[in-house]
Automatic annotation (TrEMBL):
Coiled coil: none annotated. InterPro entries: HTH_MarR-typ, MarR/SlyA-like, WH-like_DNA-bd_sf, WH_DNA-bd_sf. This is MarR family transcriptional regulator. GO terms for biological process: response to stress.
Amino acid sequence: MRALVADEGVVLWGRVVNLHRALNTLLHADIRAATGLDGTEFEFLLRLARFPGPRTHASMVAARMGYSSAGTTKLVARLEDKGVIRRERDPQDGRAFRVALTDAGQAALRAGLKAHIPRLDAEMINRLTAAQRRQLQDLLRRIDPGETTATPRRETQ
């Protein structure tokens, strides 16, 4: 049993989970204080803003978040009720919805990022050199299943 719990992958994953949990708690508190949005709502706005063009399919944003269609529908409805996104039927596909940030959504995103970035700088960015940050980006890109450049783990003999 000791060998299993000390497995390199298990230990590394534990570090990732601990880092995520600790930072998420701080970052979500900052975002809620600045915008009134929860972390998932803010993440949707942030990911939506990264798409080219003024609007995109809600399902595409949600897919990048790992959300199901039922979860997406509820999330989009909440954000629309809060006035931070606008939803419209896709004229090419009447079953799909396109979403866009409203002016209030852009303001919330801006306010959230103004709270988010200093915390990220203090807790993560400033603790690493520029070379270490590039290396971390490269390493995460290699193992991120959402990246097309992800490299599968090699089996060891």
